[in-house]
Amino acid sequence: MSEEIPADTAKNMAVQLINEDKEFSQGLPVYFNNCLGGRDIDQNYHVISVFGSQSSGKSTLLNLLFNTNFDTMDAHEKRQQTTKGIWLSHTQAVNTNRGVRSDPGSDIFILDVEGSDGAERGEDQDFERKAALFAIAVSEVMIINLWEQQIGLYQGNNMGLLKTVFEVNLSLFGKNSKRSDASSHSQKHKMLLLFVIRDHIGVTPLESLSSTLTSELENIWKDLSKPASCQDSTIYDFFDLKFVGLSHKILRADKFLEDVKNLGDNFSNKENNDEYLFKPEFHHMLPLDGWSMYSENCWDQIENNKDLDLPTQQILVARFKTDEIMNETLTKYFENYDSNIKPLILENNKDALIEMLVSIKVQSTGMYDDLASRYTKQIYLENRIKLLSKINDKFQETIELFIQGTSTELIDSLKKSLSTNDDETSSFNEILIEISKDITTRFHEFISNFKEKDLINEESIAELNAKFTKFLNKKQNELRAIQVKSIISQFKKNMNFAIKDNVISYLANPSDDVWDRVMSFFKRSMDELLIKFETTSDNSMKTYDFQVGFTPELNDTIYKRLRYIAWYLLNVTVHDYLKEDAVIGILREKFENSFRYDENDTPILWKDENQIDNAFKIAKEQALNIFGVLCIAKTTDNTEIIPDVRVEDVEVEDDLGIYHLERFAHIINEIQKEKILRQFRRQINLSVLDAKRSMITTTTHIPIWVYALIVVLGWNEFMMILRNPLLITLLLLGVVGAYFVNKFDLWGPVLNVVNSAIGETRSTIKDKLRTFVLEEGELNQSNRKQAPDEYEMNDFKKEQEEEEEEKVIDEKKDINE
Ligand SMILES: Nc1nc2c(ncn2[C@@H]2O[C@H](COP(=O)(O)OP(=O)(O)OP(=O)(O)O)[C@@H](O)[C@H]2O)c(=O)[nH]1
Fold first, then answer.
1. What spacing in Å lies between the alpha carbon of 16 and ligand 1's midpoint?
2. Which entry of 384, 509, 513, 520 is 20 to 30 Å from 350 by CA?
3. Are residues 303 and 348 located together in one domain of the fold?
4. Are residues 40 and 174 in the same domain?
5. CA-based radius of gyration for the chain
6. Are 36 and 107 in contact (CB under 8 A)?
7. What's 640's DSSP letter?
8. How many helices (H) and strands (E) does the chain have?
């Protein structure tokens, strides 16, 4: 009959979906691809399966009806089984009264199932049962092929086949009829059982055959052992029944062909609603690419005798496929994501970044929606959320990176804004808070740009905000710490200047109340430096606020620290200054001031030793009194000075180190005391000695009687000089010369001239003597042997000469000096 098909319509080749060994073909995707030519037909396809006894003309009918190419038996050769396993063929060409229809969207897949009751399988009904289960699981319409003469007669095999179909159907759908979690579609799923009565000669009308068959089917249904959940169900809850009669293919070939075309009309004419066989409720609602996986899974479950749960299978397929689509989408749109995004982050180009992210999101969700929305809605939506979450995660990373860069910039600008802010009316903390507020607003504006485009979720915003706040707080604390450091160092500098300048001057010239003066100066200086931070607390106690936004406790710690620094500086200054030598110097000064000078600072001229001794006693007492004051720091009311701040209060661990201020008052220890006193005594003893000596020098003079004696004894000599004109002239010349030399301070050159003249004279005399001695020696050497005594004499002379020379040099030195 294939000659009835127009020659230009290519025959559709079939593929063995499940072979005789019950193995599922792995070539299905390739087959689909070949016969569809890459078309995406989504859910616009139908699946028909055909059941019936072996050699009942199934393949022949399918080939005629759908222009397929299933193997058929050649009756002239042998009556045997031709279809083995389950074959699948695709067609778009349905043979109808309007010709071969190839309507768009009418892709049909036909499963030609191995005939039942085949002699080849003997009593093994396992395959028949599994094939029925499979056909029901995957197809919309099941054609049941029957010879007319089989109807009404009890044909065990035919009835057996129908019984099998009903049973497996119940096993698939019966248990789900009360399941609340099963998809609504699966619960409503129905299948069309299309009974095709072959060799219908027309003696018995089709209606009569139909009712016979219907009552037979109802009887079989009634006798089935049904699950508890479908005890009251009828055959029509699960199946639609249709009956078609086909004339005898050989005896009434034309009528047979006409009947086939009529049947073809019902498979292709969508307009004819009543007769159209593909009803939506028969469809499994799976896209074709999912169907191949679904059918394989079903066969796998059936073949391995597992409980075939179709809704679960459909969900599994949907899950697998939507996962696959989601991953494909992510791969497609995020493969080069990092390299595309990086430059925009580096450029800090917010607008371009937002534009790119929006475009990626729209395109990727679009792709997913197109491909995945065809699968179970619930799974599609579940995975859509997953996809969005993955996209968001990726975006969050990017946006976080981008925003982190911006927030770093913003926060870095904080320090700059703070240093350039010249508002002198506000405190440091007020300015800091004001600028921080401004930065936070800018940060929120920035985030809202991403939020407007739905690129960032609330969770991420909260996270970013938290990070920003943390970061800002950290920076604020850093800036506060810097400010505190600056306050401390400024205080330290000023305090140091004040202490160094004044305290040393107090100590250098100490009085009995030196420590009162030191302490009152110390307190005054500290108050002056801290007055700008002073506040008054509720109980009108003095408290301090360093205007950096610290708690009262922290402010108190800073205050204690400043006090500690002040005390430390005072301690260092006092202890460094009052070293042994300095103290001796101070005592000596004190002593000297009292001993040597009167109240008008005029040096005292000693008259007698008693005066010296008294003055010495008083001065020494005064000095020792001051020494007592310097040894230990006490106020005049005899209270030892103890710093009012303890190391542990400030817990400093800075360059100041830990210093035991408790020892502040103890300036000079016992050993030092002894040493100082010893030195001091020695020095003042010398002073008193000097004083006494100076008194002797001034009082020791030549007695008058000595002058009288000189006049008496030297009278003649004076007279001789006065009477001799030469001598008097020489004397006058000498006196005048001496006067001028003295007046012009020429004693030096005169002495030099005299010295050099003496030196010259001496060397001339020595040369003369040496020459004379050498000549004498040479004469004596030639005539006689020189006696050892003479040698000794020579040596002696030499020594004498050398001594003389040395004397001359010494004299020269003395003169020069
Ligand atoms: N009498 C009659 N013979 C038919 C009809 N259709 C097909 N045949 C013949 O029946 C024989 C078997 O036909 P197939 O189409 O191979 O039968 P089948 O059911 O596919 O056989 P298996 O695949 O082996 O189960 C062939 O010789 C056909 O020519 C029909 O309508 N009436």
1. 19
2. 384
3. no
4. yes
5. 66
6. yes
7. B
8. 25, 11
Pocket test for ligand 1, best of 2, 73, 79, 86 (most atoms within 8 A of CB): 73
The answer to the question of residue 210 being in a domain is: yes
Question: Looking at this predicted complex, what is its ipTM?
Answer: 0.96
Of 255, 280, 308, the last residue of a domain is 308
Give the whole-angstrom CA distance, residue 628 versus residue 620: 12
Both 142 and 189 in one domain: the answer is yes
Tokens representing 737 are 């010369």
**Alpha carbons 27 and 14: distance in angstroms, whole number:** 12
The finding on whether 78 has its CB within 6 A of some atom of ligand 1 is: no
pLDDT tens readout for residues 420-475: 766 667 788 888 888 888 888 888 888 888 888 888 888 888 888 888 888 888 88
Q: Which residues contact 785 (CB under 8 A, 6 or more apart)?
A: none
Cα(53) to centroid(ligand 1), Å = 10
Ligand 1 atom with the smallest distance to the CA of 198 is 31
Q: How many residues does the chain have?
A: 817
8 A C-beta contact, residue 720 and residue 714: no
Residues 350 and 391 in one domain: yes
Amino acid at 209: L
Measured in angstroms, how far is the CA atom of residue 79 from the centroid of ligand 1? 9
Residues 591, 618 contacting (CB under 8 angstroms): no
Among the listed residues 186, 33, 39, 185, the one whose alpha carbon sits nearest the alpha carbon of residue 106: 39
Number of domains in the chain: 4
Instruction: For residue 565, give Cα distances in angstroms to 489, 534, 658.
Output: 10, 18, 11
541 and 652 inside one domain: yes
In the numeric block, which tokens belong to residue 638?
């005899």
Q: Whole-structure pTM over 0.90, yes or no? A: no
In this structure, the answer to whether residues 43 and 176 fall within a common structural domain is: yes
What DSSP element (H or E) covers 15? strand 14-18
Domain containing residue 435: 314-456
Burial tier of 554 (Cβ tally within 10 Å: 0-12, 13-18, 19+): middle
Asked whether residue 681 falls in the same domain as residue 540, the answer is yes
The answer to whether the CB of 249 is under 6 A from ligand 1 is yes
Residues of the chain falling short of pLDDT 70: 1-11, 73-83, 101-105, 116-125, 153-158, 173-188, 306-308, 421-424, 537-540, 646-662, 696-701, 776-817
DSSP at 172: I
With residue 99 as reference, give the H or E element that holds it: strand 99-101
My answer on whether 49 and 177 are in the same domain is: yes
**Residue 56 in marked binding region:** yes
Per-residue pLDDT at 515? 92
Residues 6+ apart with CB under 8 A from 529: 491, 494, 495
**How far apart are the C-alpha atoms of 339 and 398, rounded to whole Å?**
12
Res 3: pLDDT: 31
A 10 A CB-CB count for 218 gives: 14
Distance CA 617, CA 813 (A): 46
User: Are 710 and 717 a contacting pair, CB within 8 Å?
Assistant: no
Atom of ligand 1 nearest to the CA of 118: 25
Residue pLDDT, tens place only, 13-31: 888 888 888 888 888 888 8
